[in-house]
Amino acid sequence: MKCFCVLICLAFCNCIKAQSADDSVRSAVNQLFTAMKNADSALLVSSFADSAILQTIIDKNGKVEVKTEAVADFAAQVAKMEKNILDEIIQFDVVRIDGALAMVWAPYQFYYKGKFSHCGADSFQLVRINGKWKIQYLVDTRRSHGCE
Hints:
alpha+beta
């Protein structure tokens, strides 16, 4: 019985540790959207690793194109906005963590000036650098139809 109690305690501790890591990854992703909503380019840049890659998959009439954008360029665009103009609402569908690597799959809906603009899915790869999660790779899809 004593051994069983120890095993239950260890399993519970591992669940708490996993939930804490999961929460810190979610917080790092949410920081990006807070930065966008607040038009805070400095916070936005700090969400990404120095060598981060930012891409969008565009499907125009069956022709797929991958557009790459520098984080600095994206931050400059966000800095030009007023607060509360950009609002991306995500759902954390999947969060996976292995050591210093995390993956997030998040369907989203994007609103511009309070009006629905488009939806899609964000796929994040994060790396824990100096104890903080940073976005290393972000690729998303965008569409204006088939949104829930």
